[in-house]
Amino acid sequence: MDKKIKVSIIGSTGYVGAEVVHGFLFHPDVKIAHLTSQSFIGQKFSDIYPVYRGICDIELEGSSEEDIVRIAKDSDLVITALPHGVSSKMVPVIVENGARVIDHSGDFRYKNIETYTKSYKLDHPHPELLKDAVYGLPEFYRDQLKTTKITANPGCYPTCSLVALAPFLKKGLIKTDMIIIDATSGVTGAGRKSDLAYAYCEVDEAFKPYGAVGHRHTTEISEQCSFLAGDETGKSINVTFTPHLAPFKRGMVASIYVKPSDAFKAEGVTSEKINEVYSDFYKDEQFVRVLPGKNLPDVKFVNGSNYIDVNGMYDPDTDMIKLFSAQDNLGKGAALQAIQAFNAMFGLEEGTGLTNLVRGV
Amino acid sequence: MDKKIKVSIIGSTGYVGAEVVHGFLFHPDVKIAHLTSQSFIGQKFSDIYPVYRGICDIELEGSSEEDIVRIAKDSDLVITALPHGVSSKMVPVIVENGARVIDHSGDFRYKNIETYTKSYKLDHPHPELLKDAVYGLPEFYRDQLKTTKITANPGCYPTCSLVALAPFLKKGLIKTDMIIIDATSGVTGAGRKSDLAYAYCEVDEAFKPYGAVGHRHTTEISEQCSFLAGDETGKSINVTFTPHLAPFKRGMVASIYVKPSDAFKAEGVTSEKINEVYSDFYKDEQFVRVLPGKNLPDVKFVNGSNYIDVNGMYDPDTDMIKLFSAQDNLGKGAALQAIQAFNAMFGLEEGTGLTNLVRGV
Amino acid sequence: MDKKIKVSIIGSTGYVGAEVVHGFLFHPDVKIAHLTSQSFIGQKFSDIYPVYRGICDIELEGSSEEDIVRIAKDSDLVITALPHGVSSKMVPVIVENGARVIDHSGDFRYKNIETYTKSYKLDHPHPELLKDAVYGLPEFYRDQLKTTKITANPGCYPTCSLVALAPFLKKGLIKTDMIIIDATSGVTGAGRKSDLAYAYCEVDEAFKPYGAVGHRHTTEISEQCSFLAGDETGKSINVTFTPHLAPFKRGMVASIYVKPSDAFKAEGVTSEKINEVYSDFYKDEQFVRVLPGKNLPDVKFVNGSNYIDVNGMYDPDTDMIKLFSAQDNLGKGAALQAIQAFNAMFGLEEGTGLTNLVRGV
Amino acid sequence: MDKKIKVSIIGSTGYVGAEVVHGFLFHPDVKIAHLTSQSFIGQKFSDIYPVYRGICDIELEGSSEEDIVRIAKDSDLVITALPHGVSSKMVPVIVENGARVIDHSGDFRYKNIETYTKSYKLDHPHPELLKDAVYGLPEFYRDQLKTTKITANPGCYPTCSLVALAPFLKKGLIKTDMIIIDATSGVTGAGRKSDLAYAYCEVDEAFKPYGAVGHRHTTEISEQCSFLAGDETGKSINVTFTPHLAPFKRGMVASIYVKPSDAFKAEGVTSEKINEVYSDFYKDEQFVRVLPGKNLPDVKFVNGSNYIDVNGMYDPDTDMIKLFSAQDNLGKGAALQAIQAFNAMFGLEEGTGLTNLVRGV
């Protein structure tokens, strides 16, 4: 490609923003145009993340509406890592000024405005944009990504859950009235901030469930599950979801409990069949890895990467299907999935700039 | 008490054994008589655990059958932290030689011999002893503990699960055909051994499910759930159970998903009601702490101790009850529960030697 | 003891304060009278540290000067865990109102007021009190502790360094013109606060030197080294000191490099001799453990406790003596040493309430 | 480059070997020809490191002498990650069969055979090769690397120490009779093996010095320091060296204490001057980063990479220079430095395949 695509990142010094920078830094077709920060204007990106000293010394700009207009005019794509309620105001500004957007907030993830309102306790200033925004899970929506102006990057827990559930929902292999998702995240999921709750001495040697009722990702997962199951209203499925916080930096596991549908029961459910369903469904996906045999996912095997590993098992004693998935919450769960979506949006091979992002030891 | 009770520990240098030593070292009514080890005979306990230098310099003895006969004769109680299949042979020897026993293996935890055989793939040399052995969860079996010769110390996952479930099973408040237990343990749960799977660089920054179908604790939990639900055969309930391994040393959380029974539904299920059920059921228990309001358990708050914290919530959108419990897998989940059972067995106040075992910061 | 000693803690919810509470909770001769907090007035101590739910539910009071007067009148001892510059104002108030004090700040640790002023960049409002305050290292100052009104609890790095150096300084076995102390602390050393620098994701998998020139503990160590070497002015020795931050919660190691004095050289320096010097010097100290042979200290072996482990070696190739010590920075390095000093101040056996504070696994 | 260079790795499943694989996998000019393993012959590399599933599924071969002959004939370069004593036998075999070698053991790092013998307690079967082997620190030996058949990849501690010391040794700015290196390594430094000493529960929340007298890297550092100081015999300098083990996976810090030479004193030593010395000396080095001002190195900023960060300070109170460096022990300290040396050996730009290897969050 002769001319690089100009990408800017609004909110580049949070963990998600910084991981987006990381991914684009080494992307062969991209030139990072602007990086903004609320707290560190005028400093270099490498002052905040000294890892990048000599590698990314771009000066951080502000992110006022004026800044964003200017940046949008000078960018092909703007990535926004802003709080919900802020994105809903800024994303339309960016689009009006000629750039496409990938947004990391919850503001453009829903099709049902009332579900958004209930989940985020906010009035959306531009509900008319929801129908055009595309949910940025390339495995399911890559065709729509090609032309969208607004990509809503999925939540980390939703990505982890939906990739594990999709084949079974799409093929009608599970009952949809009880989907239990028990998930665990590393601490980067809480963002980069001064908060005693995430201080080293509070999180180390600790483990806990949180947000056990009413976590926002519950409705996001439910709406997308409904779509995957063929319900265009997005309202038929309500999942049970519990997140947990564990003492590691990056990574996420979803352990999912579902019952086989009558149709699947008639076929005869086995662990091998579950593995085959996955292998068949994801055979052309480069970032979804179906583990062989009884191998179960581990965050260790996906960290730093855009990979998501899945496998499942059948427990005949309780007629229960267990599905497991592991991803990097900042990788496939956030920043690197955004780059995958970017590749899809701009007609590039979807793995461009992503395939060598893994951490071995 | 004038005369100290003589306690010996067979297998004292594993993590469970060492934690038993820890508890008894500071127990006001106990004198540690003998400590054995398979690998470190002749060394001092403090050579293996230098924490105890100057505190517990007892010399480690062997644990051949001859040793065990001699030790049993010189002890009021023998704690065995031996592999299953070995305990079933040694425990009867101890009892014959005059000491009472608390055994940490799975060999005396079941009432149904066929469930044991299926779970452990072993023939039990003394199935006749199973009916007399008492399952060492003092909260449910303290009366039987007073007189038993053999106490089978419960598994860590079973203790964590059963304390959370008991009130609801005993009172018929949940459906028993679907009990899903998703649990996470610290690494001490794997024991003290040279095993690459538990090396620092393999476990740090990692998280994974394991033993997703057929983990032995599944049948132990199921049998005890059946008893708690009033089924004397111990066979009516089959739970769904998945353990996970997380990068911390001590601690365990169980996150449990159950449906309210029709009776409970008729009453009107709420999170407050669930909290009341717990508070009422455990109001006289000193080691079960019911967290107030929406507070959820955290391993951080129970580590080093015999406490187990519980709370629950109701999700009206999915008609699902979520129950949560946290304990120290080596504390209430193993060694310190054994000391609580010991206190019950020997007519001591149940908290003796246990109430100051907590870790603050 | 018939009547318990009434102890109050000012600043009880920081890590040091909480560890003081921990120690006194289980101290047989103490009744905790008052706990204060700046941020959590009106809440229970166990709301802030849920570990202590049901164990220490004392309500937190404020710490205005008025509060402190009232608390001092109702206490035999007040422990202050206040910032430097605040302690220097409040400690005299406490003493005037009838209580003795153990202070955790740097405000009463120096004898040379100009060294304090230079190190802390503060004018001391009560320099006249410095000469009466006793440096609370019981191993060296236990006689003075018996009668003092003000005990200045030593810094964590100074305790770790001084215990390792004392025998060699007191006996003239090392040159005093070059003492290099390279030390590493766990993260609790930074205190309990919302500070991005100590967030889990910033500290995990990280390790760094900090404060490489001018760390305040340098002058505190230097003054005390001078006293130990027999220089009553406290000004003859200047140590070289570098602290490091490592990803664990509690614990501290000092690795010290010194040259043997001519006198020691004349005797013939060996690793065995160094070990003997320690063993002889500390033979009556219950909390200083001299490791045998070539065993080196590890924070793992002292955590949660008031123990400090030491050993040393001689490197004939470079004529260098290496001294090593490990302690819990919150234990012997702060809160538990305060309890040891308290025992000395109130005529109790020095190990009272401390000997069972160790963490095995 | 039209034709890829064929590289094989002997001992590819240890942590160093696997990191070499990682680096070469994404190297634009390299084709990995063969991977061997002692324990996992016939399995795929990705069976051992599932991170690489779908990325590196190469089958692991054996490493008998016969295997090595065959592999050497089919490779342009062979990387050996073998134990010392084994390398000294196998490296000559590889060279005889036509491949160049980068060896990770200590067997070819010394010029003085007696120093090797004393340090490793081994007779070297091919002492005649030592003079031709090149010490693989490209910053100092890149010219010799161009033509060498045998590159001895430096030890991790030596690299970290020598890069920090070199400018001062080369320019005569420090006294050479006292060089104290206090260093700390992450746990990967101990290698990938089943060893209780490196089990998660033994290393987590622990920190200790080890090998305090006689660690092998001491003599390696000393010999190279002598060369850097201009002493061709390699025998004039003896450094004092103490390693520590800390609970993180990757990374290493060296904190070094030296005295300024009279010449440097005459100039006037300051922290700024020290920084200038570094900046000037390393101005053309892409992997040595001199931190500005008072910024000190942190392993967090170099992990996953071939970068090494340095800075120094002068303490006028004690006339002591402190030098600090941080690197990834597996990166610049081992595997990635080997790739940098490989680039030098094969006439490639030295940063090829290395510049995008950093870990941000």
According to DSSP, the number of beta strands of chain A is 14
Task: Give the topology string of chain A: H per helix, E per strand.
Answer: EHEHEHEHEHEHEHEHEHEEHHEEEH
Counting DSSP H or I runs of 4 or more residues, the number of helices of chain A is 12
Pick out the low-confidence regions of chain A: none
Helix proportion range of chain A: 25-40%
- The assigned structural class of chain A equals alpha/beta
Major beta sheet, strand line-up of chain A: 3-2-1-4-5-7-6
State the oligomer.
homotetramer
Question: How would you characterize the largest beta sheet of chain A?
Answer: 7 strands, parallel
The gyration radius over C-alpha positions of chain A equals: 20 Å
Distance between the termini of chain A: 34 Å
The most extensive contact between chains is: A-B, 49 and 49 residues
